[in-house]
Amino acid sequence: MNRASLIAAGDFATVLFYVVVPVFLATFLIVALCTFAFVVFFVCWLVERRRPDGGSDALHGLSFVANVLIVCSLVFLCSFGLTKVPVLGNRTWCQSASPDGIYTLQADRVAWYSLSGVPTRFTLRHVDSSGDVLESRSTIVYVPSVDEVTFQSEPCAVEWGEGHVDIGAQRRFDTRPDYFFSFYWDDQIPAQE
Question: Membrane-crossing residues (predicted)?
Fold first, then answer.
C-alpha cells in the first residue's frame, strides 16, 4: 500500500501558483523576445535604408531571423501549454456502489509536476439512487508520480472511518495491486505510514 500526502491548500492558490504564474511568465518572455526582435529589425532597416542598394539583402536576412524567432516562440508557447496547463474537466478515477448510494472519485491534474510530486485535485461525491449529490469533498493530493494517477473505471473501495474516508482502487500495469489514500475532514495532515 502507498499513501499520498494531503496538503491544506485552497484550489485557487494552487492553480494560481502552478498554472497562471508560469503561463504569465512564459507569455511575458515571448512578448519581450518578439518586441526585441522587432526593435532590432526596425533599427537595422533604418540603417540599411541609407545604402545605395537599399540594403535589400541584409533586410531579407534579418526578416528570416525575425520569422524564425517568432515561430520558435509560438512553438514553445504551444508546447508549454500542452504540457503544463491542466486537462480541463474532471475524469472519473473510480466508482463504488453501496447500499446508501454511489461514491464517485474524480481526478483533475492541477499541474505537470512540482518538488512535492504531482498536484492532483481529487473530488469525492456521494450520490443517491435518484442522482442527488448528498456529499461532495474536494482536496489537492500530491501524488509521488504521474504513474500513480491512473484514470480507469474499475471499482474502488470506499471505507468510512472516524473523521475520514479511505479510498482505494485497482491500478493498471503494476505489480502492486492497490493504491490507497484518505480524505480527512479537518485541516490536520495525517502522519506518513
Answer: 15-47, 59-82
Pairing mode of beta strands 156-160, 133-143 = unpaired
Q: CA Rg, the chain, in Å?
A: 25
Q: Residues 84, 85, 89, CA angle at the centre, nearest 5°?
A: 140
Where residue 60 falls (left for φ over 0; alpha for ψ -120 to 50; beta otherwise) is alpha
Cβ atoms of 181 and 3 within 8 Å: the answer is yes
Return the C-alpha cell found at 125.
Answer: 461525491
Angle of CA points 160, 161, 163, to nearest 5°:
110
For residue 42, report the phi and psi dihedrals to the nearest 5 degrees: -65, -40
Number of H helices, E strands in the chain: 3, 8
Give domain limits for the chain: 12-84, 87-184
- CA dist 140 and 27 (Å) reads 26
Q: Which amino acid is at 42?
A: F
Residue 14, all three cell numbers? 494552487
Instruction: Report yes or no on whether pTM surpasses 0.70.
Output: no
pLDDT at residue number 27: 77
Residue linked to cell 504569465? 24
Q: Is 108 helix (H, G, I), strand (E, B) or coil?
A: strand
Taking residues 4-26, report their average pLDDT: 54
- Checking if the pLDDT of 89 tops 60, the result is no
